[in-house]
Write a structure and sequence with these properties.
Keywords: Membrane, Transmembrane, Transmembrane helix. The chain has one domain. Helix content is 74%, strand content 0%. 20% of the residues are buried. The chain is elongated, with a radius of gyration of 24 Å. The protein contains four helices and no strands. By secondary structure, the chain is mainly alpha-helical. The longest helix has 34 residues. Helix 2 packs antiparallel against helix 3 and helix 3 packs antiparallel against helix 4.
Length: 126
Amino acid sequence: MSKKRRSSKKLSRTEVHQPPSEPQAIESLTVFWSLCIFATLVLVIVVLLLRVSAALLQPAENTNNTWTGFADLLLFSAIVSGSIGGILTPIVQSQRKRRAPKSIQLAAIAIAISPWILLALLVARS
């Protein structure tokens, strides 16, 4: 049996990488923006789950418990990351050559505003 020899031309040829379409700073800003929006979404979901769990599992007399305190701390974190993500949304979209679709932009704004709406609902309920 004979082994096939690979062509030395194929082995010595270096692959040509395409230059990035966006500057690295813009790419980094886009990643930071998307992480802020994703973190806000996760935090809002966890806050809602903690609030519902505390309401279902704890008696009505003991409203000042650890779960609601932790939920309040996470809500504060969601407000901070959502505010940063909301501020960065128009900045990122104006700096990029290729903008995100309108549905992504609207979803990002809705997610960024959701902790503020949740805070307003909790304050109005108190």
